[in-house]
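retry 2 of 3: previous attempt timed out while embedding FE2/S2 (inorganic) cluster. Reduced batch size to 1 and resubmitted. Inputs unchanged:
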Amino acid sequence: MWEYTDKVKDHFMHPRNVGELKDANAVGETGSLNCGDALKLFLKVDENERIVDASFMTFGCASAVASSSALTEIVKGMTLDEAAKVTNGDIADYLGGLPKEKMHCSVMGKSALQKAIADYRGIQIMEKPGEMVCECFEVTDLEIIDAVKANGLETTEDVTNYLKAGGGCGKCLDRIEEVIASVKAEG
Amino acid sequence: MWEYTDKVKDHFMHPRNVGELKDANAVGETGSLNCGDALKLFLKVDENERIVDASFMTFGCASAVASSSALTEIVKGMTLDEAAKVTNGDIADYLGGLPKEKMHCSVMGKSALQKAIADYRGIQIMEKPGEMVCECFEVTDLEIIDAVKANGLETTEDVTNYLKAGGGCGKCLDRIEEVIASVKAEG
Amino acid sequence: MNVIYTDNNATTRVADEVIEEMLPFFGGFYGNPSSMHTFGDRVGKKIRQARQKVADLIHADPDEIIFTSCGTESDNSAVFSALNAYPDKKRIITSNVEHPAILNLFKYLRDKKGYDVVLVPVDKKGDLDLDLLYDSLSDDTAIVSLMWANNETGVIFPIPEIAEKVTEKGILFHTDAVQAAGKIPIDVRAAHVDMLSLSGHKIHAPKGIGVLYVKKGMKFFPYLIGGHQEKGRRGGTENTVSIIGLGKACELAAQQLPIMNTQVKELRDYLQSQLLEKIPSVSVNGDLENRLPNTLSIGFDAVEGESILLMLDKEGICASSGSACTSGSLDPSHVLMAMEVPFKSAHGTIRFSLSHYNTKEEMDHIVKTMVSAIETLRAMSPFWKD
Amino acid sequence: MNVIYTDNNATTRVADEVIEEMLPFFGGFYGNPSSMHTFGDRVGKKIRQARQKVADLIHADPDEIIFTSCGTESDNSAVFSALNAYPDKKRIITSNVEHPAILNLFKYLRDKKGYDVVLVPVDKKGDLDLDLLYDSLSDDTAIVSLMWANNETGVIFPIPEIAEKVTEKGILFHTDAVQAAGKIPIDVRAAHVDMLSLSGHKIHAPKGIGVLYVKKGMKFFPYLIGGHQEKGRRGGTENTVSIIGLGKACELAAQQLPIMNTQVKELRDYLQSQLLEKIPSVSVNGDLENRLPNTLSIGFDAVEGESILLMLDKEGICASSGSACTSGSLDPSHVLMAMEVPFKSAHGTIRFSLSHYNTKEEMDHIVKTMVSAIETLRAMSPFWKD
Ligand SMILES: Cc1ncc(COP(=O)(O)O)c(C=O)c1O
Ligand SMILES: Cc1ncc(COP(=O)(O)O)c(C=O)c1O
Ligand code: FES
Ligand code: FES
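retry 2 succeeded.
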């Protein structure tokens, strides 16, 4: 079984800010039913671009719920510029750490946050640019490159832990290995 | 561990007729140090060809000792003609049975008895006629054919149990199988 | 907190009677059964008795029982022996809902050893496509291996019927009966199977002991090569204590078979009907008519399994989402995917697997806990609309 | 009757401390360590601790420890993995005094799979022909597997020296340390070994649990293919109870190592000198200077081993003639034959293998019994002349 910190367990059993935020003016959605986890983040942003309220709806495992809950707590009170700098590592740290196999939950949090900010600013995020590597979890090479760089990932297992990519049928594992190697080669 | 009958244990712990018989007039020897068991049978035969005394010296396992001891008890009082009809099955039966892996001990008993009778009668037994099958235990095809017929043996394992042949390096096992098959083919 | 254990298809509690039977052989009679001393031999006798009891459970002969270290070893050994017996045959056949001990082995043989692997599919109820199975039998087939009952859904394959058809063609037939044993009657003779796998820890014996039944007269090639143990069919010093425990467990399993199909089945049916009644958007996975009496695989729309398990865990309830062996992996269970269970309920599937130790009170507590857990989780699920 | 147990190279008594450690996990905490409930997880924590203790005994990292079902499985797995890692290399090297778990496997690979098998011989003292070993190393060599200590004679091979030479050439090195563990210090790092086998029941853990150490970073191919247990390196539900027991046993073994080389060694030396003094025509097998502290292999001319054992058995004394694994077979021990021990004393060889449970009084009783047994048997032996 996963070794969850008390903080994770607490945020799972007593999630903060659950449910739709009626007067949200920024919404970010990520994940899907097929993937096994999904997060919908609601932000209420005031005229100074400060996040005055946040809430979430999550489908997923305990760490997905806890990451979502943590995320809402972290961003409340931040300006959008500050929020844009929140990393998946910040979410994991807030929870006292996540099992490495569950790091993708924190990644999902960061992704939803980015989308919500873009939504508020009216920016259209290019959906999943780059070349599709993992079909099971719809992960592209660019996403893998980002995650490898940001988190110092070394193995395909790491990539699966952070992005799920490779954790399904496994047929993309060779390609993932190539992508990791290309990042390493770049230095 | 072998399941020895109480009779076997008794004849091992308290063997009857141990030692050289000073006035023996018929001696039969079989087995060798290399094979791991050997039996020297001493008979004292009177003018009516009746066995009036018998003794043995044995090197070997518990069932070899017990078979030897049983053999001397069985033949005492018999005429040589009667003794010539004693089979390895008789020896095993006398002991309430032998573990099948140890049947070769009773075969050794019968063989020593035959040699002792031949010795008394001044007959030279052709030593191991036939073609050598098992070099480890010096067993010929004719001996295998005899044992298969006399004891209804069916598998190479049976042959090993009765004659040891095949129980060493194992390289003769295919040939033993052929010999068994040829006996079966004869009907 | 009292534990409510409904994860018996993953592993079972070692029965008190089994523990009692084993205890003297750890510190007291620890001899090696192949040794030349009475001390070792005392163990040898107990092992012979145990072998008889195991044989009795499946109507086999004691000589046909090989003790292994687990169901996985039994499965691997059976397939390995078949491939050695028929080195020229290149097709091997199984289903796409087997336990990883067969499925991953077959994939390895396909990918690394060039075997022509046929994975016979199942329908939405988890029943095997028999026509396709029979059509795929060829002269070139080394072995057909099919599980008797599925660990996740409890769906039972018609092994006696299949085995007869397969062996009629002179093709070796192996069945993984790890989940079937102790839950439904097994008769290896009547069923025409050549080889059959069991695992001790699924029937209240300890973990780390398994059985491979190998039909008399069959040429068998050992998988663990070493000493002469198990009549030369499996090297390694015998796991005496566990073998003795397994013998007792098989004796108990035979006695308790009727209870499985009455008391345990009634509890399972009660749990199922209560959950269906009290929670909306719920579906049971697998052929309802054709299922192990102790197993309930049930999907709750729009929620995720691990979350449910943790909420059950808080109440001391042990259950499983999909197969225990794949928890830790991210993909939805291959069994549910093969049955085309929609993602919506596949991700939210829980397996309750009962034993005769369970009670009606426990079922009521499970139902109560589930009602509140599903409510809580759906309240935060973006996919729940009602 | 009290049992005097001097057959510890065959198998050992499970230590009381080990039994105590295991007991709660049969009937109480029987969960599956990979399950998603606290109940299973409690077992998971104990297993992590056990893995650490096992690693400590051989100075390894817990990640490098794979639990198997026995020494034989560890040996087979190591070789299988090496052959999979180097499918094009066709030479495999071992000695001619290995345990059947290696020797029979190598013979199988030679006879059925066409491998070029080198069996490095030993001299009359049982020491390995190192020159021949080094000469046989080739680019084509997939693995060298050599036992650390011999089960029959206790003779120790200079593994650290050998392993360094072998691995320097980029050749995989495996050692069967089943008999060495707990009797002499083992440090896998200092010794440069890539893989190492242990077996629980030789160090006061239960039978049916083993260990394969696999050096970090080495590509490993699982032998039992199935679920994701042991980080995908060995399928099959973990034998939790025995793993926990083995952890404790390794902790105890580490503590008792000094006793082995003082108290136990002194008892062995006492037994040896008494037998040599009191019985004529006796010879000790194996390199006296280079031997496990607990082992005495000793041959009595002109008598046969089984007979001696049964006479010892009558006095409650457990010992062994040659290897326990081959008792039941008719051929003289392959180890003694390889050492060219003459038939005269090979057939009459007894192995006494001691543990810290033995006492001086027991040794005296053995000597007394042996004196009378050998006298009785020689009196009826046709080969005894004095
Ligand atoms: C040196 C050696 N290797 C391997 C083994 C095999 O161990 P196990 O019986 O646990 O398979 C033994 C003991 O039987 C042994 O002494
Ligand atoms: C159907 C089936 N086969 C095989 C196995 C493997 O058994 P074990 O874990 O004893 O190796 C299991 C259980 O895990 C199973 O459910
Ligand atoms: S394509 Fe990546 S896991 Fe299936
Ligand atoms: S020749 Fe027959 S066993 Fe060796």
